[in-house]
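Troubleshooting entry. Yesterday's outputs looked truncated, so today I'm pasting the complete records for two proteins to confirm everything comes through intact. If either block looks cut off, that's the bug. Protein one:
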Amino acid sequence: MAEFRNIHTRIWKDPWFCGLEAEQKLLFIYLFSNERASVCGMYELPLRFIAFECGLSEKVVLDAFAVFEAAHKAYYRDGVIWVVNLKKYNDSGDNGKIQVRVSKDLSSIPDCELKKMYYLYNNIPYPYGIDTPSKDDPRDRDGEETETDTEKKQTPKISTTSYPGIFTKVTKMQGIPFTETEKVLGAFNTLTLRFTEIQPLVDYLLPFWDKWSKSKTKDGRFYSKTNCTWLYDWAVTGETPTNGNGKPPAEEEHF
């Protein structure tokens, strides 16, 4: 791994970062500056090692990751870390050496749910297939379905192929806006860690979409329906920002 890391000075003016506790800021910087951090943004690092090097308890580390995950900034699963924007800040375009390094680092990560999310988010074909069999296959040794397997079939489960359909159910729009695809997929990846069934997720998203679709900017125009801030910002964090009047903020960036 490289011995030097770039830290963009604008991080100290980033609203999300500035809102973190001091220990959370320390951990977040550590995630992209420690010696194991990969340019691809995904690498393996034991929890106890993170805690020791940062001088934090394991509980504080896990609590911080919950905050990072809610904001779709960084994830931790069974010794695997994914810092979402690390690849972007290390991307040198057509730099062949960087791309070779990214591929090599990714290949060293074992097949896991977090790795699947990474490939989907970065629009990279997953070499092992997205829907891999579960270790706990609910079938008996004769290959017959068990009662548990039958019950699961009765409830629609969320898969990556469900995302467009869920989006349409909520917004009545035919398809995810092309310019928002990357952020929308990232938001769904985060939300499906909390929701495993389609209808509960749809029910959760509807109020955020309803608020967005009925809100207006200062000049009286409705928020653009092809802008999905309501999903990847409001719904992911579970909060609808408000101004002094208790209404969603009127920001021109929504257009």
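Protein two, checking that the full record survives here as well:
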Amino acid sequence: MPARVKKIRHDENTRAKIQVAELVNRFHRHFMGLCDLSPTQIQAGKILLDRALPVLQSVEVSGEITTSKVIRTPTIAPDIASWQREHAKDTLQ
């Protein structure tokens, strides 16, 4: 296969995501019994994941949310003929 003419350059954020994905894949393979990790490797991987991924915490939201809605209704027509002259002219064409 020929070499690439246009080289792909990843930014730091993309490289960090790839490294985190590799750590997660390695832990997954370890949990599935496909590879062995020493306790030191597990601890080092945990420290790296703690630095790379945000720690999710539960947050309780309290307070009252109020919303208001304004509904504008059309004016009442005195009879059907005047309502049709005003509103139905767009739908009949």
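Both blocks look complete. Sanity check on protein two: Residues 12-31 form the longest helix (20 residues).
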